[in-house]
Amino acid sequence: MSEMQRQLDHYYERVGIAPVEDRKGNYDEMFSVFCCPKKDDCRKVCCEEYKSLDKGEKFTFSPRMDGVEINRCYKNKKYRGDSIPRIVVVSLSAPMPSAEKKSLSLKLNPHWRETLAMVRSLLHPFITSKPFPRPVENKESKSKKIVEELFVHVRTAKCCSNGSSQEPRQVYKNCGCYLSEELRILAPNVIVTQGDSAHDESKEHVFGEGGIDTEVEEVKGIANSIARIVDLREDNGKVCWLRTYHPRSPRFYPQAGSKIDSESCVVGAKRKNFVCYKHIHKLMKDGIL
Known about the structure:
Helix content is about 40%, strand content about 15%. It has about 290 residues and is α/β, with parallel strands linked by helices.
């Protein structure tokens, strides 16, 4: 286990948000062993929202079961001899575990498939020794496993419910404070936030007050303003912040046409073209990141 992984796991234990073991769908039991001091408030607001939706099903609330894994390539900033930036993707919250178990398909969850395509495209300018894996559809794909080893994924919310597709705003606000230390330990060069709550909580707890727009080549009408260089609140270092919508949201590509290249995964193709420019590579070379 690396020192970075050890520090992160210790932090989760210290503040009470270490992941719990799956108790075969016994969410009440998992909730009882989860030590987050804000868990009761989060479950309460989720339950209230669920009742307002009048779904007629039993309300369930699950604490986090997945940890954050730091692979060797991310820690060493190397892939097959090539230097790569450390990329952290900050998403919203986990889907309910039961949602994954209902499907026996080997196809990837669309959110995860498109996230992998985005990371692949961000890293593409750095990889010279061998062509980078193409977008993948299969959960067992070797390409999927390669890309997953090159970045770190954290969630803004540390729990999830079976209510709407997003948790109530208060849940993200309760959990946002944990991002500061998570990101300090992970020491990224690039932070990608997915969705408004991930943006807002990162801006509140991770980034400093200052920030400059980067000079980014525009691709198929995608606005430059999504990319900024910002200070990290804790250590005064700088990071490239890419503020994106949820990967499946059409709002991220208001002017981009569907025929962008020949890849079968249209969103993956857009993600590939989104970062064909090499601005992150230049920023690192110039010592800005």
